[in-house]
Write a structure and sequence with these properties.
The complex is a heterodimer. By secondary structure, chain A is α/β, with parallel strands linked by helices. Chain A is built from 18 helices and 20 strands. Chain A folds into 4 domains: 22-207, Histidine kinase-like ATPase, C-terminal domain (Heat Shock Protein 90), CATH 3.30.565; 226-354, Ribosomal Protein S5, domain 2; 372-449, Rossmann fold, CATH 3.40.50; 452-599, Heat shock protein 90, C-terminal domain (Four Helix Bundle (Hemerythrin (Met), subunit A), Up-down Bundle), CATH 1.20.120. In chain A, the strands form 5 sheets. In chain A, strands 5-4-3-6-2-1-7 form a 7-stranded mixed β-sheet, covered by helices on one side. Chain A has a 5-stranded mixed β-sheet with strand order 8-9-12-10-11, with helices on both faces. A 3-stranded parallel β-sheet of chain A has the order 16-15-17, with helices on both faces. In chain A, strand 1 (67-72) and strand 2 form a beta hairpin. Chain A is elongated, with a radius of gyration of 37 Å. Chain B is mostly helical. Chain B has 2 domains: 1-132; 242-366, no CATH class. Chain B is 69% helix and 2% strand. Chain B contains 17 helices and 2 strands. Chain B has helices spanning 8-17, 22-38, 41-58, 64-77, 87-102, 113-130, 134-145, 150-162, 172-185, 189-200, 210-224, 228-241, 249-262, 264-278, 284-304, 327-349, 353-359, and strands spanning 307-309, 324-326. Chain B has a two-stranded antiparallel ribbon. In chain B, helix 4 crosses helix 5. Chain B is globular. The chains are: A alpha/beta, B mainly alpha. Chains A and B meet through helix 7, helix 11, helix 14 and helix 15 of A and helix 2, helix 4, helix 5, helix 6 and helix 12 of B.
């Protein structure tokens, strides 16, 4: 690398600085970094709060910090904090250099926890709504006041404040509405944004013309009554909640509200998550577990790092710890509910069963807590986990359509069949069986044998010819026939299919239609199956039709009827027919009609 | 108006409330049948697309193939069918489902390479016809070729990266994750870190898969190079993000492989939770990754004890009622399964990628 200057050599290279196009930067900020121009309020609140924190540090005992916002509707916003202010040197350093923040000086190698901002680009966001920014500032530790005016072309002016510094100690940022941004310069809008972004701020914020402080909320929610928590949630999220779980952990402070209606598992937004008292995000996917979709959370976090846009958290160990704390706090809240307000818990389960089931799959403690209340679809109707524990024998099947097909068989036999085809149910039933040593088993081939009774030797002999003939009839469908006893008697045949057979049926259906791109791949998939899965057609020995069929002497007639029974079983099971099956059904029905006419 | 008249909008409302995965796919299969019977072209296409999407992102991606084939046939037989869809969904929806049908072929060794090449030729014709999807085409090429010829795969990757994004492109975070994967594969850690930087800093919005994909790439790379500290860091991150779904099986395999060295108890829990999903899976890459992790786990456990108590499902080939398994036997079994799948891949691809990959599975201590 000969272009690099070695130590001791004369440096004849001319050095240049990068030129930053501030207008381009603003475009990046407004169109790519920030989601909306209204973040300028967040940035101003952040700077004001940090200035007050700095003054509190410099002047121990001083605790009169506040922020006062004056709005001239549609025209101007004056944002005043009575914090530390800046002297002339600091103005040049912090207001004029992008990326320089007065808060980025590390303390013992770490960012001071009590400051919110750190990137030194926040003030630039004001250019999204104003063509210039005027900053009046007077340092709290003495020194004169100055007025700094910045423009979006990258220039700024600085002059001593003329006359008396009537605005007092601290900083006043003045913005003039640029065309198109007037709607941000309305008292109600500013109040809404302050309440949105700065609700959790420890510094009181006042807006001229609006009585009282905008952000008067508790810093610790653990000692607050349930009804007060619910009223706060109603005010904050504008909806009534079923319940509220206070969260107070080393990283988190706030409330997890349980919504009163069924929600979609893809819903990850609608929270209010603050970092060091300033709104960071409404999205919960980084901090909250996937099952939290039935909650709306108001959380103030600390010791976590934001990403540059301040709209999400940085992935690190602290974040992992915060996640664990959240899970633990919710679990403990629900445990208390189970103990003291079980009817509230049952109501929550009734509405949010899906979310709770997915929680219980992962978490053993939650599983123990909830399993007795969780509902499962069975051949006896919906049964809770507690009810299932009382059964001495049961089988479960992980396909809803197979469950529907087998339900009448199990009902007639007085046996219990559990449907685990719905999300999380398979895992939960397996876990229930394992933990409580229940004599339940999945409905495999062996369990089918229990449901479908074997024939006696003489019965088998009686049905030998029929079984052989039906097998001959349906061998081309990757299906074999077996004759058993089962209930109900009026069910002549039962088609049993595994997931693999189901998929192969789908492949064959697709191969029936002419598809240029996929036709070869489909035939490879169908022909290259190593062990061809086979479906089973069970014929019911108890059924009169099957009994009659077993005594027919005409092999051709039995072959015809067998094919029709196979297709009827498919239709009864809701399986779409392949083209070849449709053709066979037409052919066999016609031959059956022909046979009937001949015998008239 | 008959009582049982088909009403796709009502069924759509029901399907939107159905949880993702197996139950949704069962319902969609039924709805496809109803739409076919009713001859409603919009829903014939729409639900096939939804089914392929469910298969790709919430179940076994191979199950997207038959519905993609049917969609392709419906449109090619009568191109006017596409007019049933909103204008912006016609070309992109069509190419997307075809892509979802081709995508799993890379992970199904029973489909010969020549057939995959023919499919890609046909896909390229569609790309040209609809003037969209070229970037996706190059990525598909890179993705398949990484198992055959790293250099060629990297060339395809570069074409992918240089081609402009369009409506068919994956999310930016996913694309960056691919870039991380390809750079690590090429041994260029610096480039991988550069691509990963905005992902790590959260400067890009993520789809559900993107963070897992790039963390997985780093995790495999750390394990392959024997850097257990780094692997542990990524395994913890990945462990937080993965769900107990078929979709996440390959990620789970990598996490088990790392926990085999750092937290055997947790690795056993993970194995028990995932093994049910492996059975009957057509996507052989997911099975391979899971079995590879399982092999490493029992290889390491066998060094410490003879047997392990595990809650494995009855459907597991070596299932034991008492739950007591011989670690050495399990290690052998998982190894032979992974090796067998790897051999079938290598035979199909005419390469030795999987053979070498399996050789790297046991950690080389730094």
């Amino acid at each position: 690398m000969d272009h690099l200057i070695k130590k001791g050599e004369e440096d004849t290279t001319t050095h240049y600085n990068f030129q930053v196009n501030l207008e381009g930067m603003l475009d990046i900020l407004s169109n790519h970094l920030y989601k909306s121009p209204d973040v300028f309020i967040r940035e101003l609140l952040q700077n004001g709060t940090d200035a007050i924190t700095l003054r509190e540090k410099k002047q121990p005992g001083w605790d009169n910090g506040n922020i006062i916002i004056t709005v001239v509707p549609g025209q101007r916003i004056e944002f005043k904090d009575n914090g530390a202010g800046l002297n002339e040197k600091e103005i040049h350093r912090f207001l004029a250099v992008i990326g320089q923040s007065s808060k980025t000086q590390l303390e013992n190698g770490h960012m001071p926890e009590d400051y919110i901002g750190r990137f030194g680009i926040g003030l630039l966001s004001c250019f999204m709504v104003s063509d210039f920014i005027t900053v009046y500032t007077k340092p709290a530790d003495g020194g004169s006041a100055h007025v700094w005016t910045g423009f979006p072309d990258g220039t700024y002016t600085l002059e001593p404040y003329p006359g008396e510094d009537s605005a007092g100690t601290g900083t006043v940022v003045t913005l003039e509405a640029k065309p198109g941004a007037e709607h941000y310069f309305q008292p109600d809008k500013v109040a809404e944004l302050v309440s949105y972004y700065g609700l959790a701020l420890p510094v009181p914020v006042f807006i001229s013309g609006i009585p009282g402080c905008i952000n008067n909320i508790p810093q610790d929610f653990s000692g607050i009554s349930r009804s007060q928590l619910l009223s706060f949630g109603q005010w904050l999220f504008n909806e009534d909640f079923l319940d509220a779980i206070p969260i107070q952990t080393p990283h988190l402070s706030g409330v997890a509200y349980i919504v009163s209606y069924r929600t979609d598992s893809s819903l990850k937004s609608g929270h209010r998550i603050y970092l060091k008292h300033m709104l960071l995000t409404e999205e919960g996917h980084t901090l909250l577990p996937s099952w939290a979709f039935f909650m709306r959370c108001f959380l103030n976090t600390k010791n976590l790092r934001p990403v540059a846009s301040r709209e999400d958290f940085y992935e690190d160990r602290e974040l992992a710890a915060a996640r664990n704390e959240f899970e633990e706090a919710v679990r403990s809240g629900l445990e208390k509910m189970a103990e003291y307000e079980p009817e509230n818990l049952q109501q929550i389960i009734n509405i949010h069963v899906q979310a709770i089931k997915s929680m219980a799959v992962w978490d053993d403690k939650l599983f123990d807590l909830f399993i007795d209340y969780l509902p499962f679809e069975t051949s006896e109707g919906t049964l809770s986990g507690a009810a299932l524990k009382k059964y001495n024998e049961a089988a479960w099947v992980s396909s809803v359509s197979k469950f529907k097909q087998l339900k009448p068989v199990f009902m007639s036999q007085g046996r219990l069949l559990i449907c685990t085809g719905y999300t999380s149910d398979d895992e939960l039933i397996s876990k229930l069986v394992y933990k409580y040593l229940l004599p339940f088993s999945p409905l495999g081939k062996e369990s089918m044998e229990l449901v479908l009774e074997e024939l006696m030797p003489f019965e088998r002999k009686q049905m030998e010819f029929l079984e052989k003939t039906v097998n001959q009839a349906i061998s081309g469908f990757d299906c074999k026939a077996e004759i058993r006893h089962f209930l109900p008697t009026d069910l002549p045949v039962l088609y049993s299919i595994s997931d693999d057979v189901q998929f192969i049926r789908q492949l064959k259906s697709a191969a029936d239609v002419n598809s240029n791109i996929f036709s070869e791949a489909l035939s490879s998939l169908i022909t290259n199956v190593e062990k061809k899965p086979v479906a089973i057609l069970y014929l019911n020995f108890n059924n009169p039709l099957i009994q009659n069929l077993s005594v027919i002497n005409s092999k051709d007639l039995v072959l015809s009827i067998s094919k029709i029974l196979y297709i009827q079983a498919l239709l009864a099971g809701g399986y779409p027919l392949h083209g070849s099956e449709l053709k066979i059904m037409n052919k066999e029905l016609l031959s059956l009609v022909g046979y009937s006419l001949k015998t008239l | 108006m008959g009582e049982n008249q088909f009403d796709g909008s009502v069924l759509s409302m029901i399907i939107n409330m159905t949880p993702d995965g197996k139950s949704k796919m069962e319902a969609l299969r039924e709805y496809i049948k109803q739409a076919d019977e009713a001859g409603d072209n919009y829903y014939r296409l729409y639900w096939r697309y939804e089914y392929a999407y469910q298969a790709t992102f919430h179940d076994d991606p191979s199950k997207a193939i038959p519905v993609a084939a049917e969609y392709n046939a419906i449109v090619e037989d009568n191109p006017d069918t596409l007019n049933a869809l909103p204008e912006d969904a016609r070309a992109e929806g069509y190419l997307m489902i075809v892509q979802m049908g081709i995508d799993p072929v890379a992970y199904m060794p029973q489909i010969p390479m020549e057939q995959w090449e023919k499919m890609m030729e046909q896909f390229y014709i569609l790309v040209k016809r609809y003037n969209t999807g070229l970037r996706t085409y190059w990525w598909q090429m890179a993705r398949f070729w990484r198992f055959i010829d790293k250099e060629k795969a990297h060339q395809y990757f570069q074409k992918f990266w240089k081609t402009g994004r369009d409506g068919l492109s994956d999310c930016r975070a996913c694309e960056r994750s691919y870039a991380v994967l390809m750079s690590l594969m090429a041994g260029d850690r610096e480039a991988a870190d550069r691509y990963a930087k905005p992902l790590k800093a959260g400067r890009l919005p993520f789809c559900e898969d993107a963070p897992k994909l790039y963390i997985y790439a780093y995790l495999e790379n750390a394990l392959d190079s024997g850097n257990l500290d780094e692997a542990q860091h990524f395994a913890n991150q990945l462990n937080w993000k993965i769900k107990k779904t078929i979709q996440d099986l390959n990620y789970l395999g990598a996490v088990i492989r790392c926990f085999a060295y750092t937290n055997k108890e947790k690795a056993c829990e993970k194995l028990a939770s995932g093994i049910k999903n492996v059975q009957g899976l057509w996507d052989q890459k997911k099975v391979y990754d899971f079995y590879k992790g399982a092999w490493v786990l029992f290889h390491e456990l066998a060094k410490e004890k003879e047997t392990a108590s595990l809650s494995l499902p009855e459907t597991f080939q070596l299932y034991k009622k008492d739950g007591i398994y011989n670690c050495h036997s399990l290690a052998e079994w998982f190894y032979s399964q992974a090796q067998d799948i790897g051999k079938r891949f290598d035979k199909r691809n005419g390469s030795s990628y999987f053979e070498k990959n399996l050789e790297l599975a046991i950690l080389k201590k730094n």
